[in-house]
Fold these 2 entries.
Entry 1:
Amino acid sequence: SQTIHQWPATLVQPVGSPLSLECTVEGTSNPNLYWYRQAAGRGLQLLFYSVGIGQISSEVPQNLSASRPQDRQFILSSKKLLLSDSGFYLCAWSSTGTQPQHFGDGTRLSIL
Amino acid sequence: GESVGLHLPTLSVQEGDNSIINCAYSNSASDYFIWYKQESGKGPQFIIDIRSNMDKRQGQRVTVLLNKTVKHLSLQIAATQPGDSAVYFCAETSSGGYQKVTFGIGTKLQVIP
């Protein structure tokens, strides 16, 4: 069966520091991969998606970037975090075609 | 835990009763719909999906109803249990190519023992 791993679960970082959140998927090949941010009282906001290695699409302009160095690995990064980057970040995967997305357990990021 | 439940519509249901959670979607081109359950501090968990060629689909204790005329989706949970307490939200997308999914804000379900 397929599983998705996201780490760390929580992270506290100072303003201006770099960020690297990692997500890996097991049990499937060539998945679509996604990074979302979830704010309290709001729906999930899509940040990036990827349909293949090295292929990244950005949905909103921001202080973050994403990379997909391997088929089942998706990384969310920032060179210098802002206070507004605080939030709950979720990674998800789906098979190609019209299939549901499956989420990891998220990373709670707090910027001080 | 995750504070996604703040300012959300809340539905309180007695244990053992049936729950009905509603969702209105906006895009007439959407033809694939998903319900997710999110417990505090966790990621959303897939519950059930339905495609636009159907108006009803049943799973274990859950039923999803789709009314394309009024762009309305509902999730029915039979014999609600304390473990069903969570935030539930719907998602819509259109098939073909990359599937960009639009997620609702969610409804918080509180089960009263």
Entry 2:
Amino acid sequence: SQQGEEDPQALSIQEGENATMNCSYKTSINNLQWYRQNSGRGLVHLILIRSNEREKHSGRLRVTLDTSKKSSSLLITASRAADTASYFCATGRGGSNYKLTFGKGTLLTVNP
Amino acid sequence: DAGVTQSPTHLIKTRGQHVTLRCSPISGHKSVSWYQQVLGQGPQFIFQYYEKEERGRGNFPDRFSARQFPNYSSELNVNALLLGDSALYLCASSFIERTSGNTIYFGEGSWLTVV
């Protein structure tokens, strides 16, 4: 079963707008990673945030983590058409946390 | 440096056949994991290998097996293929065994179609 649930399932915006995607999970985690996947391609790593961190930035990306609510958000600012892709959150748990558990993803469409 | 490389990129098999998928991790990475992604879903964990030993297995039948070689490359084998095995198979590598604080890098995947 999949632990993470991304919300919304699909998001359509105009170029230049900001896009926010949310992820909720059920059990305790050690870290959370966000990935991008272009249609039919592999996963591209975006950001890793550890359970003791609350916010991380990378370029136009901002990720927050709220372990009390078991949720994370990914913000893409000033979106571009090239940002069109599916976005997944993946959680790694403590202990034998060699495995990532993915949600179903958010399909982001950025219209030029 | 090359990323995670997988082969073949696409293949078509018939029900009941066997398939072998191959993966080369990023240089220096000793951990390799395999994931299955069916259309419209997120990837599902199949196996993890570290230092040539299986360290984790997901909820997949025994028709799925894997191994890791001394050079840390890996093979995923699936026997007695079913239509439901049609999916994108992703290989991932990381520097050390545990994912805690370690980025996991994925390859482009192998698209398997079972007819």
